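Ticket #4471: structure output looks truncated?

Reporter: J.K.
Steps to reproduce: submitted the chain below (621 residues) through the standard prediction queue, then opened the result file.
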Amino acid sequence: MTTTTDDLRLAADFAPATYEDWRKLVDGVLKGAPFEKLVGKTYDGIKIEPIYRRATNAGPIAGRGQAAPWQIMQRIDDPDPRRANAQALHDLENGATGLALVFAGGSGAHGFGLEPTAEAVDKVLDGIYLDAGIALDLQIGPQSRMAAIHVAEYVKRRGFDPANCDIRFGLDPLAACAVWGFSPYDWGEIVPAVTGAVKGLVALGFKGPFAAADGRVIHDAGGSEVQELAFVLASGVAYLRALEQAGVALEDAQGMVYARLSADADQFLTLAKFRALRLLWARIEQACGLTPRPLFIAADSAWRMLTKRDAYVNMLRATMATFAAGLGGANAVTVLPHTLALGLPDDFARRVARNTQLILLEESNLAKVSDPAAGSGGIETLTKELCEATWLLFQEIESAGGIFAALQQNLIQRKVAATRAAREANIAKRRDVLTGASEFPNLHEADATVLEAKPVVLPAYGEAKFKFDALSPMRLADPFEALRDKSDAKLKSSGARPKIFLADLGTPADFTARATFAKSFFETGGIEALDSEGFSDPAALAAAFKASGTAIACLCSSDKVYAEQAAAAAKALQAAGARHIYLAGRPGELEAALRATGVTDFVFAGCDAPATLQEAYRRME
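Returned output as attached by the reporter:
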């Protein structure tokens, strides 16, 4: 006999909880405030409700095979081919099941990459049995496009059967054009080169896939989930059309295209994005008269979320990204090592990137259940709304003449630029938090180690005949890290960082909260905050400020103490030589009086931190 929760005495003692019951409790807590305060929004304007009802009639989305793990891809991008070969062999011996060969000039190279020559390919792949179940994913650009041919020639030369080699060739001129902001050729001239390369590889016996629809370029540039998905759809359709026009049957072309997506630390959006792509691509296939087959989706942990400061937090971000991509059905995952923003990762960073996936697969068993989010009200709703918004943008791109024409018209770039600007504003106001960079900085952190490497320099690729706005990669932490670099330069030249005196007023109960806020605020910009024990005597405060040797100060306390002591404290600090006096918190009705006594600026949650910190540097100089 099967026992259910309804049969248990504990469950039976409680009435079933309903959504309406929950709303009553919430309304009591809100005390008249609108419920919309609890509703978030994505950068696409999609609402995120605080709670969802269970989704009914929902089933798993077809993706990886049942209980099949994703491919653990390890990034190989060292310009030294001998060292890259040693890294590849070590990775494969220690759990990696595939290699992402990143060649210089590729969209995801980020300053490094393999040299795209036959000699370099031979050295990198030496001793690797490509027909033994090892996956290769080539990340190439137009300047390094010959690397795909060199890999194919290496396979034939070593006597491997191309049909037994799992190689994704990564042909994707659209992504390169989008990042560069120009193209030497019109789309009509690009198509024969791409389809010719695909047909040549097929003739050699390779099974593909060959053309990559790469959404990472949108994510790297600060775009939204819908913009990334629409770019992938439009690119994939462009390659399908090109192959069909070249005489390839659509049923064959169907397996020649694969996708790349970025996975970031937003667990739910990432998970829903991967699920949405599968549904969207199935709709494309149906519109082409094809029987849908699961699209191969490769995931990279996101470049834009990496920080140079407190780089170890990147391990946590990568873990969340891998978790979400894996549960979202990614077929392959590449974790960017946590020090990649600082330089070429060393053995430790590479090991952590590899083991992040191994632990999630082997110890957490994430691949044992297919599409575990199926039926979740929140994830199902988010997946559906991403699909609907993406389809509208995809139709807009198609109406413009397809992806290349849309790039020429800056249709996509304008949308990405608007999202990027909104994202940067939220980072500046610290609404979107980057731990270790925009919040909770550590001015005394030890430097992470990276390898010394000389990047491969490739010749320029053609004349910029067709120009449009570039989708330039960015990192969210850049504004804060530029200020930290300024602080480091000051430390190196003078032996001390720029400093600010925290003028704590009253008792610890009065000032601790705002002093903690102010310390974090200023130190995100590399300005060391000198704390104090609390003052009620303006003369003692002035003496302590003078003894600190600082040029600027920040008053920290409660609103009540500000009303009683801030004016006298500001006058004392000004008389003691303070060039600029901040106050932690919103001034409210006291603003005019405080400014009259010497307070010149206010720092609070939601103010533009980089702009305020830049001004602080100017004041100190």
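Triage note (M.O.): checked the attachment and the full token line is present. DSSP finds 22 helices and 19 strands in the chain.
Status: closed, working as intended.
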